[in-house]
Amino acid sequence: MNAACTANRSLPSSAPSYSPLRKAAHGRRSRATSLSPSCAPGPDRRQLKRSRSSTPPSTTLPKRHRTTYNAGSQHPAHPADIPAPRPLATTTPDRRLPFLHPFTCVFHEILHEGPLTLVLLVGPPDSEMFDAGDMRVLKLYACRPADTRARHTREAYTREYRAYSSLVARGVSVKPGSSTMSPRVVPYCYGAVKASSLSSLFATTAFPEFSRIEQSPALNLYPAHHGFRGLILEYIPSSVTVASSLSSLTPRMAIRAIEALEQIHDAGVLHLDAYPRNILLVDGDVLWIDFDSAMTTCYWMIDVRQFRRERALVERTLLLDVIPAAWAGKRPKYEMWV
Predict the structure, then answer these.
(1) CB count in 10 Å sphere of residue 136
(2) Quick check: 233 pLDDT over 80?
(3) Coil, helix or strand for 109?
């Protein structure tokens, strides 16, 4: 106990309640000192700041944070405060996509060859000549071998299959030409296919690109793979991605892309790869593609701040980076850290 407090207590009861001695003692106190009757010094402000920064963020969230995205919510918190998604113990999946069996097609063109997938343009097997309305996109994956140490939910095919199941079941992915008033958001997925060999997928293998397909790194990712899986998607001709045509993106299209992402979030799907390379521009409309990194609320416990953070990332990338860089003729900054 300091001297000011001792002198303050030694005053007689007839002394005024706000004496000069009490005023001097109060002036020597810091703002962080507690004004308790015992005049004990309070905690230092630097110690409080140090203790708060060392406290790890809580991973136990209230029940209200386990819902999906709300359009009227605020911007997300710091990424360190957002817990990572966790698999649900008991899942309640949406109606799953059907498997198209038997499935055969005619090869037409290789659209994209990535590290995990091979995207082909195919047509019906009954005719070698077909128009754009009969074409489909076949997205092939190599199945991971059975391994108890590897979770099957981490496969790119499983993530995209579950994402399209939720999008189709909740009316976000609709068939082309259907009578819907809302704009298109994602291409339609007709179903899934599975095959033990590549030759069983094609009506004929007498085309020069078949050897290139067999030697694709994506289909030989696992040496002892267990067959192939694939998705049959809608083919959208004359479409370009935002990454390949930055000057084609307008502020109205950027806002439309953000609204389309909100519809995907409302279906319980977190894209997790929401970058300009996965945004299609077609006839003034905007579509999102490539859900092989996505998570769904049917299988994962996803914090609502993850949805807000992804929306803020897309808004910042398109409106504050891509469009100004395209107008200035410069390279967007997001390409440096993606």
Answers:
(1) 19
(2) yes
(3) strand
Distance CA 272, CA 294 (A): 5
| Separation CA 334–CA 30 (nearest Å) | 47
Contact 71, 80 (CB under 8 A): no
* 32 Cβ neighbours under 8 A, 6+ residues apart: 42, 43, 44, 45, 48
23 to 18, 29, 155: CA distances (angstroms): 7, 10, 71
Residue 324: in which H helix or E strand, if any?
Answer: helix 323-328
Question: Tell me, what DSSP letter sits at residue 183?
Answer: P
Give φ, ψ of 107 to 5 degrees. Answer: -70, 140
**Is the peptide bond prior to 102 cis by the omega test (within 30 degrees of 0)?**
yes
Helices (runs of H) and strands (runs of E) counted in the chain: 8, 12
CB 202 within 8 A of CB 105: yes
Which is it for strands 269-270 and 295-296: parallel, antiparallel or unpaired? antiparallel
pLDDT at res. 36:
41
At residue 147, what are phi and psi to the nearest 5 degrees? -150, 120
Closest CA to 318 of 263, 270, 260: 260
> Which among 245, 247, 242 has a CA at the least distance from the CA of 314?
242
The backbone region for 323, taken as left when phi is positive above 0, alpha when psi lies in -120 to 50, beta otherwise, is alpha
pLDDT digits (tens, 9 = 90+) for 3-54: 545 444 444 444 444 444 444 444 544 444 444 444 445 555 555 444 544 4
pLDDT band at residue 69 under the 50/70/90 scheme: very low
What confidence tens digit (pLDDT) does each residue in 303-318 have? Answer: 999 999 999 999 999 9
Our CA angle for 78, 81, 82, nearest 5°, is 95
How far is 55 from 318, CA to CA, in rounded Å?
A: 35
